[in-house]
What we know:
- The protein is mainly α.
- It has one domain (6-212).
- It contains eleven helices and no strands.
- It has helices at 6-25, 31-37, 40-54, 58-80, 87-102, 107-123, 129-139, 147-164, 168-171, 177-181, 195-212.
- The longest helix has 23 residues, at 58-80.
Amino acid sequence: MIKLSAFNIKILAAVFMLMDHVCYVLMPDLLILHYFGRLSFPLFAWLLTEGEKHTRNAYRYGIRLLITAIISQPIFSIVFLDLSLNILFTLLIGLVMLRLAKRCPQLWQQLIIAGVCAAVAEVLSCDYGAYGIGVIFLMSLTNKLKPKIWSLYWCIFHLVLLTLSVRSIVQSLAIFAGLIVFQFNGQQGPRARWFYLFYPVHLLIIGIIRYSLPFNWD
Length: 218
């Protein structure tokens, strides 16, 4: 398979997210876009773990996430008619979890931290909630476990999710994101300073289209 840099994976994550949002807001009958969109969050979760690992200043990284999350929130709420917190807040909680986990060498301690952060994400009604924190935690283990062992945990995680909710059938397509992250070639690739703007800007454009066209999308 083709090897990918972190930049390539970032572009894929953005494209899959755009496809998912276009389906949800503008083309709800084109479900193939939604299916591809299930790959987006796991890739962003992996990118977060890579960013946390290589950042020189985790606090600055967190502040950038927080500022972008706050700017994006009103746009997110209007476009999706949803009062839950957008995905950047989930990633921010995930970043806190990763930093705290680094201070605790024992796996059981890290699992407790992940559990607390998952509960926080649920209480705050963050997008993807506890599932999102679980994905971030597992993605942080891709370079610590053998690919076959990690893939087993990844599949079990989504199978458990299936037993909890029928709605998770579509979300289980996220399993295939594992195939993408293991094509990482170890190179970061070009820096994408524009990337923080992509989230609010693409939501804004989709929102303008939604409320400009003379159709009832609800």
